[in-house]
Amino acid sequence: MSYHSSLIDALNRMRNAVIRGQKKVVVPKSKLIKGVLSVLLDEGFIEAFNEIETGLAGTSLKNGFEVTLRYFRNQRSLINEIKAVSKPSRRIYSGYEELPPVKRGLGIAVLSTNQGIMSDRKAKRLRVGGEVLALVY
Fold first, then answer.
1. Together in a domain, 97 and 63
2. Which residues of 96-131 are buried (b: 16+ CB within 10 A; e: fewer)?
3. What is the CATH number of the domain that holds 121?
4. What gap in Å lies between CA 104 and CA 58, rounded to an integer?
């Protein structure tokens, strides 16, 4: 499985957990996914994520991250939509000046840059562009 495929799998697992109203979800483990989860944590879209190992009950994963999703008091998730932009068949790159605001500034784009994985806000501040991995709002 390519690293983009595992990221798409993780994003789909989180989206499905939000639809079901689940508080926690287990996603595959990789450096790319850890970077994306760190950005989501920094931006306040998730509460926490922890690394877990040695065969997870009810899943086919041996290693992964347990992600604690963040909800409002009325049980609505902070994540309304989460989707992959770059795919293995089509990579999407953008310069920092070309990044439009996501949902009028309420969401973020997650980028992979030469300075690491970061949000579009941080990329604009540091004046770096890169591959657009995902949109979250």
1. no
2. beebeebeeeebbbbbbeeeebbbbebbbeeebbbb
3. 3.30.1490.10
4. 39
CB 98 within 8 A of CB 81: no
Q: What is the mean pLDDT of residues 5-22?
A: 93
Return mean pLDDT, the chain. 90
Question: Domain range spanning residue 132?
Answer: 82-136
pLDDT-derived band of residue 100, with 50, 70 and 90 as boundaries? confident
Task: From residue 86, give the alpha-carbon distance in Å to each of 55, 91, 112, 120, 121.
Answer: 30, 5, 10, 15, 18
Structural domain total, the chain:
2
pLDDT value at residue 5: 86
Taking the model in full, what pTM does it have?
0.89
In a domain, 76, yes or no: no
93 vs 28, 42, 62, 72, 133, CA distance in Å? 24, 23, 32, 33, 9
Verify that 59 and 108 share a domain, yes or no.
Answer: no
